[in-house]
Automatic annotation (TrEMBL):
One GO biological process term: glucosamine catabolic process
Gene Ontology annotations for the cellular component aspect, listed alphabetically: cytoplasm
GO molecular function, one term: glucosamine-6-phosphate deaminase activity
Organism encoding this protein: Mammaliicoccus sciuri (Staphylococcus sciuri)
The protein, known as: Glucosamine-6-phosphate isomerase
Listed transmembrane segments: none
Keyword entries, A-Z: Isomerase
Gene3D superfamilies: 3.40.50.1360
Record carries keyword Isomerase: yes
Cross-referenced InterPro entries: Glucosamine6P_isomerase (IPR004547), NagB/RpiA_transferase-like (IPR037171)
Amino acid sequence: MALNFKVFETKDIAARYAADVVRKQFNSDSTSVVGVHLEAEQTSFFDELLDDVKKNPVNFSQIHILDFDGKEDYYTELGVPAKQVLKTDVGSDVEAFIKEKVNTDKKKNKLMLDVVTLTEDSRTGLDYDQAIHPAREVIVLVTGKEKAKAVSQLYQEPANGSVESAKLKQHRMVTVVLDNEAAQGLPEDVRSYFSIQFS
């Protein structure tokens, strides 16, 4: 599958865009299960999401968060009930975990969205088959010039290659959200094609 890239001028705008996608997911499906693993990313994503939710209130009564980063206090401040912030081990089989821990009115109980990043050596930090593949949609937020090489590896490596992040190409719906610095890892024509304005 093709990866969809979005390139933004600054890391804060990239983070704002990613946060907006997450907030819209919350609003469009009040029983969403969303996984977040951004430990390896220096980002304003969490501040942006808090601001977005203040401007566009969300009914969190049945939303569940798979918290891979140990940020329960943040999610409860956001408005998610503490019992629905599920501390999740990076090695977890998320489908089995969700089946055991999540119970909503709609009984869909599927991982709707994963928000992840890349390390400098182009890893997501999650097992693709167990924690990423089950998600309906994946957002990969990657910023900073130190991540340009990781982006280059993601772009160039085949899906079955040796670079861990290249497995993301097996997924049907992945958006890679970059700032201009991380996007230096893309060929110039690709970078300019995917550069967009967002405020």
